Amino acid sequence: MLFRICATCAAVLTTLLFAMSVARAGVFVDAAGRWVVLPNRIERIMPAGPASAVFVYALAPDKLIGWSAPLSRAQRALLPAKYARLPVVGQLGGPYPTATANDVLRLHPDVIIGYGTISPPTVALANRIQQQTRIPYILLNDSIQLMPATVRQLSPIIGAGEHGLAVGTYCFGAVDILRGQLLIISADDRPRVYYGRGPDGLETPLPGSPSASDIDQAGVINVAGALGRNAIVQVTREQILTWNPQIVIAQQRSFYNQLLHSPEWRYLDAVRTKKVYLEPASPFGWIDDPPGLNRAIGLYWLSSLFYPDVYQQNLGVVARAFYQLFYGVQLSDRQLQALIGPAENPATASGQLANVPIFGAEPTPTPNLPPGTESVPPSGVPGRGGLPPGGRTQPPVQIPGLPGSP
Question: Which of 21, 31, 211, 268 lies in the 20 to 30 Å Cα band around 118?
């Protein structure tokens, strides 16, 4: 009997302590539906992996405690020195984790953020690490469609302020502009595209995989789509030649050089029409590597490659604005040319067709945004009260280089 009374008291005490912590901090419902109790102040954030590190850095760089993996020399060159020198804290998730619960305890973060695919293994990992360390662990969905809403959701929680609002506005514009284009482009006019990863270009993401999300969002025909979905696969040169894509994007320069100079590729449509491009990769890729917020600029870039007659941006202007806002770096002319030279559409490079507006396109609403608020990312924090009374939104942030901004 006494044991039952003690157990009941313990349960009540636990409930009261939980309620007190909620009142003191706040409960956040993450993308996996988990209720996570957060502290009042968040000053130290540990990323669960590379995409999470980019997410935190783009929103609140001073709160990022370290990178998930070592940065290359090229990556460090395009980041401010104080952030390029951040330590390596390891990766909690993925097939080859390099950090453990003991590392979390040693680093003393206020919160862990995992930005990626929501799956039973990632949920189980978050629950286990949180239980072992008592450090709140938030899971965020890395869907391109949800990117603006996710940034909006997290910015006030981690104290990103006006900067977070500007990043969210940029993401919203990137997703919304491309959706608007697809509404007025016939499916018959969408090009066949191959994205070649790795040094030989013989690795490619299939539709539905995070690495192909920018390409999926662009609505083009992924020539490798016949092989399935939701995976990265190895292919052969013969398969690529049979598919005969109209546009080829190389992730690495070695494959890009092969396409331009090797006789074995000369009969490919993309090579003959000079529609071979090198993905900008530093400090983070514009399509992939990792599949994080860095993909936002990829949407602008790919739309100018895939649909040059509908909408084009001056890539230099777009890149300068993005790198300043997301990475806090002002690109020199030399850095800019090294980034975009092999990536640029010649028509866009001429500047003659830059900023061509889309007429007659009505963008479809972004998921999770209330009807009538599609023009700017709504304010308010799901999990902490939602939208303010009346559903009012913050005024749009004007960003140079972003459509609709000066």
Answer: 21
